[in-house]
Specification:
The protein is an alpha+beta fold and 202 residues long. The chain folds into 2 domains: 100 residues, Beta Barrel (Lipocalin); 82 residues, Lipocalin. The strands form 4 sheets. Strands 13-14-15-16-17 form a 5-stranded antiparallel beta sheet, with no helix packed on it. It has a 4-stranded antiparallel beta sheet with strand order 1-2-3-4. The chain has a 4-stranded antiparallel beta sheet with strand order 5-6-7-8. Strand 11 and strand 12 form a beta hairpin. The radius of gyration is 23 Å and the shape is elongated. This is Fas apoptotic inhibitory molecule 1. It holds the Pfam family FAIM1. It is found in: Cytoplasm.
Length: 202
């Protein structure tokens, strides 16, 4: 006969498995948001019978509200190192159907990402078997690498500027040169160990 301890362990296992299953059935939306410090995953659970709302950012629970009588509304929280403001809007479409939209800094995710592609440059590279994601914020000239803001040194050169930093034992710099065209503005190029890295489109 199984001991009481074994039965308890078994019950706990079933309960945790059931809880995981229960958790997944209310998952209604998943978004991936590329910010300077990395790509963040936002998951939203909405129990349309209980009104439960749970927001996860990178797998960590940020908001949990059980028993909400109002099934529509919004949840606001922050994402990433810079504490970027995010809002999930819950709207009724028809009957018991709902629509979930994500806003970042007050803009729809699509608008925010379009605007972001104008204000940042992103490069993905592999050095010594490690993958790196380098992001330049054009307005501040801040450089981020794998979620950390880098120490940089700016330098004026003959045809523009160079922003120097290092990744591990690799010397890197971002060269800023005028395109000569007003619409294009300044062209930023990442050079690592004297080779040019192509820009990534996120």
């Amino acid at each position: 006969m199984a001991s009481r301890e074994e039965i308890t362990v078994c019950e706990d296992e079933v309960r945790s498995r059931y809880r995981h299953l229960e958790k997944m059935t209310d998952l209604v939306a998943v978004w991936e948001v590329a910010l300077s410090d990395g790509v963040h995953k936002i998951e939203f659970e909405h129990g349309t019978t209980s009104g439960k709302r749970v927001v996860y950012v990178d797998g960590k629970e940020e908001i949990r509200k059980e028993w909400m009588f109002k099934l529509v509304g919004k949840e606001t929280f922050t994402v990433g190192a810079a504490k970027t403001k995010a809002t999930i809007n819950i709207d009724a479409v028809s009957g018991f159907a709902y629509e979930y939209t994500l806003e970042i800094n007050g803009k729809s995710l699509k608008k925010y990402m379009e605007n972001r592609s104008k204000t940042t440059n992103t490069w993905i590279l592999s050095l010594g078997g490690t993958d790196y994601r380098v992001v330049l914020e054009k307005e501040t000239m801040d450089v981020w690498c794998n979620g950390k803001k880098m120490e940089t040194a700016g330098e004026f050169v003959e045809d523009g500027t160079e922003t120097h930093f290092s990744v591990g034992d690799h010397s890197c710099f971002i060269k800023a040169v005028s395109s000569g065209k007003r619409k294009e503005g300044i062209i930023h190029t990442l050079i690592v160990d004297d080779r040019e890295i192509p820009e990534a489109l996120e």
